[in-house]
């Protein structure tokens, strides 16, 4: 177990919390992290790209000219690939780009991401992310107090924390996700990762 400093939303020290080394203190496995991120981004692709081959293009039912005697190469249809307006050879067709990743690899990648953020001093733990009102100015003040104003920030909140979500959602360079939505790509795609101690314990319990 490692002791990690905890701050409050005013940027002041609020104590320490013990987190498991098996989740926040491992050596990051970069190849597995890359594999999981590639699979995540591939699954986000719609895969609706499509082209028409020679059988799908309209027209071209008759030979454009007779077989012999013209001095030109024989042609059977004006919708062949070599003709302007003809079909496409080996063009893209609708398909799924999804890649399968084992659940153990997904968890290892998330543990690697959290450990890497902690090792790089980019993981900020706060005792409680709570605002009385969903005011953006309160969120801006919190980021400034934590010393991460202007950075690309990912904030992980509890699934039912609507007020914090509303406070941060309109800020540029800030993405806010629920703890149940956390994945490797969201955890590493930032300059600072912020979460409460309760959320950190929740992730620790899931990934242990």
UniProtKB/TrEMBL annotation:
Gene3D superfamilies according to UniProt: 3.40.1370.10
Segments of skewed composition (Polar residues): 45-57
Gene Ontology molecular function terms on file: rRNA binding; structural constituent of ribosome
Domain of life: Bacteria
Keywords: Ribonucleoprotein, Ribosomal protein, RNA-binding, rRNA-binding
GO cellular component, as recorded: ribonucleoprotein complex; ribosome
Protein name from the UniProt record: Large ribosomal subunit protein uL4
Source organism per UniProt: Olsenella uli (strain ATCC 49627 / DSM 7084 / CCUG 31166 / CIP 109912 / JCM 12494 / LMG 11480 / NCIMB 702895 / VPI D76D-27C) (Lactobacillus uli)
Gene designation: rplD
């Amino acid at each position: 177990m490692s002791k990690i400093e905890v701050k409050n939303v005013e940027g002041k020290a609020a104590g320490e919390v013990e987190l498991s080394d098996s989740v926040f203190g491992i050596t990051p496995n970069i190849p597995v992290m890359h594999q999981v991120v590639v699979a995540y981004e591939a699954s986000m692709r719609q895969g609706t790209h499509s082209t028409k081959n020679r059988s799908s293009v309209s027209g071209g039912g008759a030979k454009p000219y007779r077989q012999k005697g013209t001095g030109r190469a024989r042609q059977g249809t004006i919708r062949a690939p070599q003709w302007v307006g003809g079909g496409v050879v080996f063009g893209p067709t609708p398909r799924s780009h999804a890649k399968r990743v084992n659940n153990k690899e997904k968890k290892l990648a998330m543990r690697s991401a959290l450990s890497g953020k902690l090792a790089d001093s980019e993981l900020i733990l706060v005792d409680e992310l709570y605002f009385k009102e969903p005011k953006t100015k309160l969120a801006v003040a919190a980021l400034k107090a934590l010393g991460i104003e202007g950075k690309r920030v990912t904030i992980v909140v509890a699934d039912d924390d609507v007020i914090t979500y509303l406070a941060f959602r309109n800020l540029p360079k800030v993405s806010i996700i629920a703890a149940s939505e956390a994945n490797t790509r969201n955890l590493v795609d930032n300059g600072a990762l912020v979460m409460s101690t309760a959320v950190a314990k929740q992730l620790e319990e899931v990934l242990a």
